[in-house]
Amino acid sequence: MTDQKKIKKHHNPRVALILSIIFAGLGQLYNRRYVKGSLFVILEIAFFVIFGRFLSTGIWGLTTLGTIAGVDHSVFLLVYGLISLVIIFFAVVLYIFNIKDAHKQAKLIQSGWEPPNFINSIREGYEKSFVYILTIPGLILLVFTVVLPLLFALSLAFTDYNLYNSPPRNLLNWVGFKNFIDLVNIPLWRDTFLSVLSWTLVWTFVATSLQIVLGLFLAVLVNDARVKFKKFIRTVLILPWAVPGFVSIIIFAAMFNDDFGAINRDIIMPLFGGNGIPWLSNPAYTKSALIFIQTWLGYPFIFALFTGVLQSISKEWYEAADVDGATRWQKFRNITLPHVLYATAPLLIIQYTTNFNNFNVIYLFNQGGPAVKGQSAGGTDILISWVYNLTFDTNNYNMAAAVSLVIGLIVIIFAIFQFRRTRSFKEEGQV
Predict the structure, then answer these.
(1) Which of the residues 259, 320, 356, 365 has an alpha carbon 20 to 30 A from that of 338?
(2) Ramachandran angles phi, psi of 394, nearest 5°
(3) C-alpha span between 202 and 291 (Å, rounded)
């Protein structure tokens, strides 16, 4: 017993650390965790045997994007390189875990800890890793279906991939921040970008705010105790939400048609005469119609959301306000509105970020038109629909990726700023 204590006392965690750095699993073997150490050794050997050649090709392709035009496909090499980076990332995480595990257990052994036997170590390992066993497949799927495409789009923003420089006929090149510089320096790109960005911000703020205000107004109105047939009214007001959005948009596109639309033919022309309003050929009128359509499509969800919150506000608050002589506006401003916003602020923020990238309404109504002279985007294109046009109409993949990156940064900054200021995300004791 004394000899074992002496051995444990001289057990050096630094040796385990160095051995695990030299080769995964050696530190565990030094700690006499033979099963775990053997698994790490097998995993590292298998990693180099299985992925060694693929990783070398992937890293070479990622750095060079090919060297022989017509033979090397730059896009494929870029994808292989990104996959290689993902694989290396997981390998590094596992390698670091191996180092920390060996060092930690060596320190425990030095302090007198007795490693469990084989059966107990299997049971203990299974209990600790059960959660990871369930989540790792989903994590891997998430990486290859979400993270990898994002990395690919991000990478294209720093290349010269366009209609006139497409693989395999031509090789792609890394151009650094040239695409972003062109976006603000070249008049065609700068004017289009500023025009589309300004309309996107106006569209996001006005359309979303209107649907929120309308939804709140109708929810407060229907929730009034004097209103009868509440269930019927709520059902009618939610009906626009029940119809698929793309169907409603297509119907509105026909109704607002300049030539045969019901808005002009049955309402505007009989009442005011003339040829009607150019809803689809004048950008100002088209933008107004789009804001109206989005308000119509978006308010039912807000109405249903606010209706549920209003039901949860205690009537005692309003009774106390009546005793104090508060007016309707004071009760709304000091009781109703704070409660509603506190409970729904995260969802309202999501409404803004969703409308910022609301491609369906813009594209289905008028394909982002009408056309604007001297710009590469339509008069009602928002950033996301402009990216679609750059990708599928003009094949400017590099500029589309650059604009997509700008979109992502704007949404991330806005979301972080709003979430940090939203009281719903603070601890209750800090409110």
Answers:
(1) 356
(2) -110, -5
(3) 10
Q: Angle at CA 234, nearest 5°, toward 230 and 236? A: 120
Q: What is the pLDDT of residue 19?
A: 92
- Residue reference for tokens 């870029």: 78
Q: Please state, for a pLDDT cut of 90, what percent of the chain lies above it.
A: 46
Residues 9-22, mean pLDDT to the nearest whole number: 85
User: What burial letters (b/e) apply to 348-369, b meaning 16+ CB within 10 Å?
Assistant: bbebbbebbbbeebbbbbbbbb
Whether residue 184 is predicted with pLDDT greater than 60 in this model: the reply is yes
What pLDDT, in 10s, does the model give residues 144-173?
888 898 899 899 999 999 989 999 899 999
- 3-state DSSP call for residue 162? strand
Q: Is the pLDDT of residue 234 over 50?
A: yes
Look up residue 382 and give its DSSP letter: -
Average pLDDT over residues 11-31: 89
pLDDT in tens, 198-231: 999 999 999 999 999 999 999 989 988 788 888 8
Q: 140 and 33 in contact (C-beta within 8 Å)?
A: no
Supply 142's token pair.
């998430």
d(CA 103, CA 33): 12
Residue in the block written with tokens 């990622």:
62
Q: Report the pLDDT value the prediction gives residue 8, as an integer from 0 to 100.
A: 57
Strand partners, 52: none
Give the span between the Cα atoms of 23 and 13, in whole angstroms. 16
180: closest CA among 188, 172, 170, 189? 189
Q: What kind and span of H or E run contains 137?
A: helix 118-142
Distance of CA 252 to the CA centre of its chain: 29
Cα–Cα distance, 377 to 383 (Å, whole number): 9
Residue 106 and residue 17 in contact, taking contact as beta carbons nearer than 8 Å:
yes
**Helices and strands (DSSP H and E) totals, the chain:** 20, 0
Give the list of residues 6+ apart from residue 66 with CB closer than 8 angstroms, or none.
72, 73, 74, 77, 167, 171, 172
339: which 2 tokens? 């409660």
User: CA-to-CA distance for 42 and 27, rounded, in angstroms?
Assistant: 14
**Tens-digit pLDDT profile for residues 243-295:** 888 899 999 999 999 888 899 998 888 888 778 899 999 999 999 999 999 99
Specify the residue for token string 């698929």: 244
Domain boundaries 178-430, corresponding CATH code: 1.10.3720.10
The encoded tokens of residue 30 equal 């030094």
